Hints:
Elements: E1 5-16, E2 19-31, E3 36-40, H1 47-54, E4 62-67, E5 70-71, E6 79-82, H2 94-98, H3 100-104, H4 110-122, H5 138-150, E7 156-160, H6 168-185, E8 188-192, H7 196-202, E9 205-209, E10 216-221, H8 224-227, H9 231-234, H10 238-252
Parallel strand pairs: 3-8, 3-9, 6-7, 7-8
Antiparallel strand pairs: 1-2, 1-4, 4-5, 9-10
Helix pairs in contact: 7-10
Amino acid sequence: MTAAITFDHVTKKYLSLSGETTAVEEFDCSIQEGEFVGIVGPSGCGKSTLLSMLAGLFGPSSGEVRLFGEPVTEPSLTIGYMLQQDYLLPWRTILDNVCIGLEIQSRKNAESIEYAKQLLREMGLEGTEPKYPHQLSGGMRQRAALVRTLAVRPKILLLDEPFSALDYQIKLQLEDLIVQTLDKYKITAVLVTHDLGEAIAMCDRVLVMSTRPGRLKNVFEVPEDIRALSPLDAREHQSFHQLFRQLWEELQDEE
């Protein structure tokens, strides 16, 4: 079975006036369709670099990145990318904001607009369609950003610390919402985060990276008894605390 995502001995180097920096080195990993994988590691270890290569923003210096068996050579319509900030355009209504990807792809029509409205309802944003971003709370804006990402029906969702700017309660609510949505629409996802609890509560596997140059140091399977729970309930399970301790100790070795 062809993996949804493959990193095949990927190395990424950056050149600057001060010299050459290796951000990621010999990163080797496969992610199956429908899987939700978290990536944790020290700051600067190349986590976001991996997502950028997946999104086709730039290529590896060596090795190969593949989506469904095909090399990534440019940005792909199968990818949805959600960042730390919502980046909603202040002069557009919420409905117009969530449909912007459809416009760019020339896919905005009555059917796709109705799908976007359905997603807004599922995210608890019904009635916000004519409003502007400044009229919404931070949590509502981030949910609207998620709808914008999902409206183009991506097969793969990339999440680069999407909850880091939110209050803890809102963050937990969004974690639940995203897990439910990914499960409903069978979307493969990769989450980059510094929050170990978030990675355990949301993901099927957690990849641990070393300090720069970032290598794949270890892989932890999240137990089925945790995965069967919502992210909120998962945090109360005994297995959660055991895995948290393992991840913590793994990362402490990198300090």
